[in-house]
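Subject: Interface between my chains keeps coming out wrong

I've been trying for a while to get a sensible model of this assembly. When I model each chain on its own everything looks fine, but I need the whole thing in one frame so I can look at the contacts. Pasting all components below, labels as-is. Any help appreciated, I'm running out of ideas.
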Amino acid sequence: MKLQKETESPKGTAEGKHGRWYGDACGTAFALELVGERWSLLIVRELMMGGRRFSDLRRVLPGISAKVLTERLAGLEAAGVLKKRQIADPVPAQVYELTEWGYYAEVAIRELGRWAARSPLHDPSLPLTPVGLMLSMRTLIDPEKAKAFDAVIGFEVAGESFVAELKDGQLPIRRSSSLGDPSSAQVIFRAPAGPVVAAALYGKLPIAEVEAEMGLKVEGDRELAERYIGLFALPEKIV
Amino acid sequence: MKLQKETESPKGTAEGKHGRWYGDACGTAFALELVGERWSLLIVRELMMGGRRFSDLRRVLPGISAKVLTERLAGLEAAGVLKKRQIADPVPAQVYELTEWGYYAEVAIRELGRWAARSPLHDPSLPLTPVGLMLSMRTLIDPEKAKAFDAVIGFEVAGESFVAELKDGQLPIRRSSSLGDPSSAQVIFRAPAGPVVAAALYGKLPIAEVEAEMGLKVEGDRELAERYIGLFALPEKIV
DNA sequence: CAGAATCCCATTCGATACTG
DNA sequence: CAGTATCGAATGGGATTCTG
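Reply #2:
Try treating it as a single job with all components included. I did that and got this:
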């Protein structure tokens, strides 16, 4: 990012002013120029389930400062990864939303996560944002097992709602404004935080135990919930 | 990386001393802690075709300083991505080699590259290292077309030699110490630099033209070379 | 409250010089 | 060849302030 700062790459000769960029035709190197700065890819991750406001991003990315978030959003917009958009819906506000191409980054984000989760040093007990949880499901679902299974699952995690529509081995997930009782979901997982759902999906703790000890609530078809959980497996560690 | 510096994550409470780490269970966030610093992932990329020495890395990563390379290698070793190994083969020396898990990062590296290459801002005319070229072939080959085609192709690019063994739609590539005439390759591409081969593979310029104007030499079965080139296509740009 | 702008300090980067 | 040592410049991040 920072594509149009003071001194852009002079006549395409491969490097910015201070050798700050890589000057490498390799797509990976270019990706790192676009999203390689601290926080950038996590911002993209948080936008993967739809546009978010500035303050939403600050909330789910604890530790990012307003200054850095501002800089990153500007850089990602200059890079064509996201666009700032005015909305008038609930109240006049602006949301940051991925461009079509920005959404294509999901595969790379997933594969980075799949790889890193296989490190023995990875600590899955840390906090997990609702969007992080949703993306982890899309990463870790077993596509073979999923083929034989259609379902509509609702999630309400830390106040954010999503609907996952399992079909043809695919698991598209969208944000849902209201996951009320007139929902089409056959089963709804409600949890105060991401790791609670993760404990059920990946930790393979019995649902009842996660309900009793971590505040999960599974509403609707509990047998379906069990089958759904059976679709996921953490990748094995490697050393 | 920097996993065991002065103040490691205190009792696993999610953040390092200065909030430098993300404290996020999301595998992607952890990946960024491991390889998210400037240059790290490009070092991993350059090791993807086998171990390299310190000076090899400095040469193919123009712009990286000895200091930063030293720091990154130490960090990546602490993270379990690579290992320093003593060799005595040609001369006593030490090489940095990916661990088994380190090699698994290739998918993520490829997907980052595939994504970024679809940006209209990507400039494919920049320099391309031999390893970058080899990885780009593994990224951009059409697996469907490749299924019906077995071949052994040699490459000698900027003094580095590789053999690619196309079989069952897979394209494993290994470094080759000598790509002499007693080689098993059915066709050999020789070029002074990566972009020359890229011009033939992805630019779809006629072989004869790339030979005449860019210094490519195609030895052996030229018809096979044409068929091989036909397996590759740049992904379309999106906006 | 949303978000941009400013100030300040710690860390990091990169170039150069130097060493076993 | 394989790194260390050093130093100025750039960046990162927190706190504060300003604007709507």
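Reply #3:
Confirming on my end. Residues 18, 20, 37-38, 63-68, 71 of chain A lie near DNA strand D (CB under 10 Å from a C1').
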